[in-house]
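Continuing the series of single-chain predictions for the mutant panel. This is the parent chain; the variants come on the following pages.
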Amino acid sequence: MTRVLIIDDEPSIRQLVATLLTLEGFDVTTAADGRAGLEQVQASAPDVVISDVRMPHMTGYELLAAIRANPKMVNVRFILLTSSTGDDPAAEIAVAMADACLTKPFTRGLLLDTLRTLNA
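Parent structure:
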């Protein structure tokens, strides 16, 4: 069973994605911000992290950089969730480091297809 950590500071989005993935058979945990998410990644090493970009305490970009910098977390796959894809150089770097990037709003099908592709 694929272990997924969902990190988003919006409780409704976090719960919606968690419920969807749980119903699809994924083992899901959640965190409300990047710092708490990083602690969970370090403690439990999920297979996939799905993280919002804009969060308090640690952005999704910072979280991704911290995960990629840790050799013990090299196998953790990372999906960024963003509401925009503007001309932000940090965004371009993060998207290049992430395994996938989904723009909000995304569909259930796109999220599931992305997860299946990463698990193939």
